[in-house]
Design a protein that fits this description.
Length: 298
């Protein structure tokens, strides 16, 4: 008499056999929590899910703060030396073009390329957009709260905070006005908004998207981020510590947002709250797609 093990039947068995035949395993993508731990319930607001395990930014923040502190005493001499570099001709034009990496038009082009080549991953662009928004708002707030004069004002050791005032050129030769960093004029916002660097923040944000979605691009993405940061110092727009803080800010927020699917979670919550309460969350599909693309967590 032969015996056989009892096999499950029904839709779940068919689905499991199909997944096994396709080589799909129930594993988490790199840096992604199990959905039961990540706050995927229908009625949960996204900010509650964000708070769970979302500390990927901490090492970058600590490293950025330590490095910026180490550079602080040398900001003035390094900035002065960098501004004396004589860039000209095609070299200058090429570097100026590459220095726009991470800014609006370049980011749009990268997003179009990702959506065109990997349409099944286009929802990841929502996570990127969420990260860029948070990083941009945080950067703008820090500029006002820190109030550091740009290198053109030659006060590298000054942090005004929101209450301090500093002379700002009016545009007329030899004419200055006293201003706070929070005053909403373009001239003041530029002159007293040195830390952190917005260009470095968005360059790091794009790089974090690339190295999260395409780990093999890590060296290229990190190199382009560093190039943007260096050019901001060479052009006299920022001190070295400004770009370090900007890179840590952009990379920290975006790495966390991409690994924790902040944009996807937020859109799921908004859609189920205001449009269709019975809609299935997209998070599970996005996580499964990333699992197949990147493999299980090491």
């Amino acid at each position: 008499m032969s015996t056989s093990a009892t096999q499950p039947s029904g839709p779940s068995a068919t689905r499991d056999s199909t997944r096994e035949g396709a080589g799909i395993v129930d594993a988490e993508p790199i840096g992604v929590q199990d959905s039961s731990k990540a706050g995927t319930s229908a009625g949960e607001a996204p900010w509650r899910a964000f708070s769970r395990g979302s500390w990927d930014w901490m090492p970058m923040a600590i490293f950025g703060a330590v490095l910026a502190g180490a550079l602080w005493s040398f900001d003035g001499p390094i900035s002065a030396a960098a501004r004396r570099l004589a860039l000209s001709g095609d070299v200058k034009r090429e570097l100026d073009a590459l220095a726009q990496y991470g800014q609006g038009s370049v980011s749009v082009i990268v997003a179009i390329v990702i959506a065109s080549l990997e349409p099944e991953r286009r929802r990841r662009l929502i996570d990127w957009a969420c990260a860029a928004l948070i990083a941009g708002v945080t950067c703008a707030a820090m500029k006002v709260l820190i109030g550091r004069p740009r290198p053109l004002l030659e006060d590298p050791g000054i942090l005004l905070g929101p209450w301090g005032m500093h002379p700002v050129p009016t545009g007329e030769p030899g004419t200055y006005i006293l201003a706070h960093a929070w005053e909403m004029t373009s001239r003041v916002q530029y002159a007293l908004g040195s830390m952190p660097s917005r260009h470095a923040t968005f360059a790091a944000s794009l790089s974090a998207v690339l190295w999260t979605m395409y780990p093999r691009l890590l060296p290229l993405a990190a190199g382009l981020m560093a190039l943007v940061a260096g050019m901001r110092v060479v052009t006299g727009a920022h001190y070295p510590s400004d770009v370090v803080i900007g890179m840590a800010l952009g990379a920290g927020i975006t790495t966390t947002a991409m690994r924790r699917f902040w944009g996807t979670r937020a859109l799921d919550w908004l859609w189920r709250t205001f449009v269709d309460r019975g809609a299935a969350p997209a998070l599970g599909h996005v996580v499964a797609t990333e699992t197949r693309r990147l493999g299980p967590r090491a």
